[in-house]
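sorry for the late reply, my laptop died twice this morning and i had to redo everyting from scratch. anyway the thing you sent over, i finally got around to it. pasting the sequence first so we're on the same page, its 210 residues, then the predicted structure underneath. double check i copied it right bc i was rushing
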Amino acid sequence: MPETMTYAYKVRDRGGKVVTGTLAGESQPLVLGRLREMGYTPISVEVQRQGVNRSITIKRKANLKDLAIFSRQFATMVSSGLPILKALSILEQQTESKVLGAAVGSVRADIEGGSSLSAAMSRHPKVFNDLYVAMVKSGEAGGVLEAVLERLAANLEREVSLRGKIKSAMTYPIVVAGFVSLIFMAMLLFIVPQFKSIYGSLGGKLPFLT
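ok and here's the structure:
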């Protein structure tokens, strides 16, 4: 049985942009064929040197809103029939979050190296939590990954919306308290001194606490 090896490739996508990565395969021609099936134009494909490990672990947490946007776009792409690797490659380039972009790139590289989507995501717990990974894994096992990704996207979007409402609800009393404080300060600085002058002209004094 032919030995599976990891190949480092450099290709151009349909937009002409150069993309690099790794892909596992039994031979260079097979890897070239897979890259063409993914819509790439190969520039070079070489056996990856031993000791090079492209897998990284992201230690910073991704923003929930960025993750929700990624999940919705990923679900839409996969549901439309786009291969997972191609979808991840596009999202890696499109995402504005450096943390999420790095995680997606690492997930893509791990899948190219033979990992499943859930296993690759599990290496980045700061970005994809246990529930996210567990749902993806169940989707892979049941052959309903598209439906699971849609549900994940919907759940994250609801959570983002709920957090926004909570933040707005908390902001209102803070603004009111700040406004009341400003009024109180204005009274101390401008109104109370006027009362003091009036009382003084009448021969009286304001109470000490005032």
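The chain has a mean pLDDT of 78.
thats about all i looked at so far, will dig more tmrw
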